Amino acid sequence: MSDTESDAQKGKSLSDADIEKLATLSRLTLEQDERKELRTKINSVIKYFQKLEELDTTEVEPLSHVHGQQNTFRADTCRETGALGEAIRQGVPDRSGNFIKVPLVIDQ
Amino acid sequence: MDYETVIGLEVHVQLSTESKIFSSASAAFGGDPNTHIDPLTFGLPGSLPVLNRKVAESAILLGLALNCEIRKFNRFARKHYFYPDLPKGYQISQYDEPICEHGRLKISTENVERVIGVTRIHMEEDAGKNIHDARTRSSLIDLNRAGVPLLEVVSEPDLRSPAEAGSYLKTLRQIVRYLGISDGNMEEGSLRCDANISLRPKGQLKFGTRTEVKNINSFKFVERALNYEIARQLSILKGGGQVIQETRLFDSANGSTHAMRSKEESADYRYFPDPDLPPLIVEESWIEKVRAGMPQLPEQLMEKLHSELGLSEYDAAVLTSEKEDVEYFLACYKVCRNAKASSNWVTSELFGLLKKEGLSITESPIAAADLGELIRLIDDGTISGKMAKELFEEAFSTSRSPKEIMEERGLQQISDEGELQAVIAEVLEANPGQLAEYLGGKEKLKGFFVGQIMKATKGSANPKKVTELLDRELNTRKSGDPQ
Amino acid sequence: MDRHLPLTTLIEQLGKREISSVELTEQYLSSAKNRSELGVFLSLNEEEALKAARQADQDGGPSEEMPLRGIPFAIKDIFTTSSGVTSCASQFLKDYRSPFTATSVQRLLNAGAFSLGKTNLDEFAMGSSNENSSFFPVRNPWDEKRVPGGSSGGSGAAIAARLAPVALGTDTGGSIRQPASLCGITGLKPTYGRISRYGLIAFASSLDQPGPMAVSAKDCALIGRLMAGKDENDSTSVDRPVSRWEEPLENICEGLRIGVPKEYFIDGISSAVGERVEAGIQELEKRGAQRVEISLPHTEYAVATYYVVASAEASSNLARFDGIRYGTRAQETEGLMELYTKSRSEGFGPEVKRRIMMGTYVLSSGYYDAYYLKAQKVRTLIQQDFQKAFADKCDVIACPTTPHTAFPIGEKSDDPLQMYLEDIFTIPASLAGVPAISLPCGFDENHLPIGLQLIGPAWEEHRILSVAQAFQDETDWHLQAPPHTPSKAA
């Protein structure tokens, strides 16, 4: 699904900069001490993931639905929303009429 | 150095289903903001997607129409990015397993036919809409459109001119409308187009650096935007510079493109198969069923009109431009069996009046069958062409059938030989002087007699018949047969 | 000594008018308030519960069509309910009101039951000690200085402390079974796809399952099968008939082949756990079962597989929490980026953030093949281990639920090897999507409960519940309640 990466990259420990990138990608900010702790924990878990490399899975299909479920559909019918729609709109933290309001989005 | 243009188009077709792709909220266009919603549309915790079967069928339909291979084992993928109009923080799409691949579309640009490759078609959900309110420094989000089904159609970079791009788009639009899966309306956003365009020295195989052009929201802007971009890239290259790979937005106000503010890093969408949606398996039997129910496509109909019904290629093309037009034509033809006349009446008379009144053909006050009947009345001599035109116009403005008006006013042409001969005899008897002059050689007096006959019948004599019978009568008298 | 009253007994008593729903409900509500130091409930549904109880008494108690009429139940605060708050024990959702009720909950409401309140959990179901609630931790009623297990710790403790006759939990990698084991109660994780996930706030979509936690296997059987069945709102729910699980299959233990996985008997299991589980298996042998040694060769890869899959799916499922459309939005933010990061950073606790980052890493560009794709392939191998064992060798699998009994609050280790040991018995069944139940089988030297786990083939809840019911016919571990529980209803 994505670029193959070198074996050297896989399993290598994450640097502070890597953690920073991950945090941005996840839309999270970390305090200094959080960052340190996180980095240690993530790195030890990543090392643990390498265990999966011991297995040869070239002939193995990845799991989709664990029990082989396929083709679940619904008919093209529209369900009235009414009161449900109103309840959903009520939950919006900042509204302008029916619109959801957020700080200005620059450069769509 | 001569440069060649290389264009590829990414077209998003918004499907005209009742409900959204993964939820039963309404997929209708417009509506008060945030009213076509349900828990999934808002990405509420605990909500789950369920695939709308009609979307899969529409994808198969379009795939068949574009001669694609239809994939058997399909999955949906989550494409992650954070943006206020994307309620779940990811878009459900298809990534490396699109439902259709390796198709082709035949286009005709200024009578030159070419086949354009279609790389892939995949299903995905639409995002909501942002409205920027600079005054309050806020953005207003409407999620009505979030979750509406889209088919993304990606072409091979086979197009070689903006005109071809326009042609491709027009043909694709025609097909989705014929299939009945989308309105294909660029202004309303049910057909959206992004273009990838690059230049390369003629003869070079390697592609040049391409730019992506977005925000082309009308057919008339397609060629303008692309022409601008070609000129821009050409001037860079001719000046020895390099084209920067970037995304540019088309500005319809001045017909130019400008670069989007570049993002810090290219997006990492973290695609993976959506675990909430089991795989979609498309068996051969399903494909065959869809194929069997497929409506006729413009190309097929055009061919039929030309070879079977004898219309010119030009007329056939005009009529098949819109599905509703050819349907009207065929319904009219069914009644009168006169293809040429039907074509003429529809494309000049009917189109003319419809345009004047701002009506679409489906809103025509004259039904196709009634027009067919009118043509039949001309063909069997009941009325004259001139009379037909009058009846047509009156029928159009009163929404009544032409035949009805004709019968009511007794406007049928008189074609009955016995009846006409009686009138001819009367007229000749009433004008002995002119008759004598005619028989003496003043041939142009025939027109006078015709005039008198028409007057006597209040204009409803069949002129052809009158001429025929008058000639016969005058010849008889000329040759000296007794009266 | 104080003893539990199973739900099924209460239903009988209600039916015979020996107790009233109002009495029952008042008792649970007052116990909940008296034992608030346990941290079990995040919200109590007091007024509505009493109203429903009064109505139930009027309507005549349980019947064929309404088998749970008059029965109050506790709901892990990860199930959406259209009345009250659904918080997931998170600051993000602390005031969140869902406009719809989870299908699995609605089915119980339709059967006549009503909500007592929402129970505490590890935030967004991430954790196995209920120390990760953003509000307060839950304490084990057997020893209040110890954890009840997690993530369904509130529900587990609720049953143990007799604050509800049945509680709903969710199990992704053991979150029903492990707290059931540590709290000395019975908890069922059904086959994946058996119970609808609609309205279950998603952690790992391909693993999550709702399930009942109660005093006895029969209780779990009844509640489980009332919740089970195809739901058109959940594409992953499977259309299969549901039999009456609470009516055990006859003579189930005769000739029953009990698979004992050799990979599960490792160093690090406490001796008490080893002894009691062995005694439990012997108990079943007494009734005609035969033990068979089996091998589940890919067991050692299960935990790594689970962490890759679960964190990836969790990071994705939590991307929707941004404070824009619902939930807690950060104030005073400059621009959109800050709105996202501040809302998310303030809304999520540290464990949740950790798992999101982990999941983001695992899915990020260049790593999909190495991690997620690989893990999903290993998962196939793990599932095949179970399928082969059940096809050729055994009818059920028996093993410990956890290697230890409840550990002290604050003492949970971060050492991956320790983590591995804690989860190794529950995770494989989750990955394989097969049903599993934990039932009490004794105590250790500190009088802390020990759980015996029975795992069955896919869709064979009836089988494992029948074995569990047979076990509980002969033993009374499941009826033993911790001290300080209020005396039983009159």
Any chance you could write out the topology, listing elements then pairs?
The complex is a heterotrimer of chains A (108), B (483) and C (490).
Chain A: H1 16-25, H2 32-49, E1 73-74, H3 83-90, E2 95-96, E3 99-103
Antiparallel strand pairs in A: 2-3
Chain B: E1 3-14, E2 51-52, H1 53-65, E3 69-70, E4 73-74, E5 77-80, E6 90-93, E7 100-109, E8 112-125, E9 129-133, E10 138-142, E11 149-155, H2 162-179, E12 191-201, E13 211-216, H3 219-238, E14 247-251, E15 256-259, E16 272-273, E17 280-281, H4 284-292, H5 298-308, H6 313-320, H7 323-336, H8 339-357, H9 368-379, H10 385-398, H11 402-409, H12 417-430, H13 432-439, H14 445-456, H15 463-478
Parallel strand pairs in B: 13-14
Antiparallel strand pairs in B: 1-11, 1-12, 3-7, 4-17, 5-6, 5-16, 7-8, 8-11, 9-10, 12-13, 14-15
Helix pairs in contact in B: 2-3, 5-6, 7-8, 7-9, 10-11, 12-14, 12-15, 14-15
Chain C: H1 7-15, H2 21-34, E1 41-44, H3 46-59, E2 72-76, H4 103-110, E3 114-119, H5 153-160, E4 166-171, H6 177-183, E5 186-189, E6 209-214, H7 217-227, E7 257-261, H8 271-286, E8 290-294, H9 302-317, H10 335-347, H11 350-363, H12 369-393, E9 396-400, H13 416-423, H14 427-432, E10 436-443, E11 449-455, H15 461-474
CATH architecture identity of the domain at 7-251 and 458-479 in chain C: Alpha-Beta Complex
- Measured between the Cα atoms of the first and last residue of chain B, the distance is 89 Å
CATH homologous superfamily classification of the domain at 7-251 and 458-479 in chain C: Amidase signature (AS) domain
Question: How are strands sequenced across the largest beta sheet of chain C?
Answer: 1-3-2-4-6-5-10-11-9-7-8
Query: Which oligomeric form is depicted?
Result: heterotrimer
Cα-atom radius of gyration of chain C: 21 Å
CATH fold description of the domain at 7-251 and 458-479 in chain C: Amidase signature (AS) enzymes
Largest sheet of chain B: 9 strands, mixed
Number of domains of chain B: 3
| Overall 3D shape of chain C | globular
| Structure class of chain B | alpha+beta
* Percent in strands of chain C: 5-15%
Number of strands of chain C: 11
Approximately how much beta-strand content do the residues of chain B carry?
15-25%
Q: For the largest interface in this structure, which chains are involved and how many residues does each contribute?
A: A-C, 57 and 75 residues
Mean pLDDT of chain B: 92
